[in-house]
Fold this sequence. Notes:
The protein is α+β, with helices and mostly antiparallel strands and 64 residues long. Helices cover 38% and strands 17% of the residues.
Amino acid sequence: MIKAVNEGFIPVRLEGRSHMDLVQKYGVRGAPTTLLFSADGQEKHRFVGFQAPEQYLKELKQTF
């Protein structure tokens, strides 16, 4: 899974409590939340909660 994510995306992990400005800007209501953005910075998809690796990859593939 790590290889698939790193090949197609630029992963960034943030601790929400340390970045409340971004939590508010993007309307994050729960953790974990995965936000997917296009190259031009537009949010394309989000999913909330823990995902099994297979489901996580499925969510990624659906978006791009």
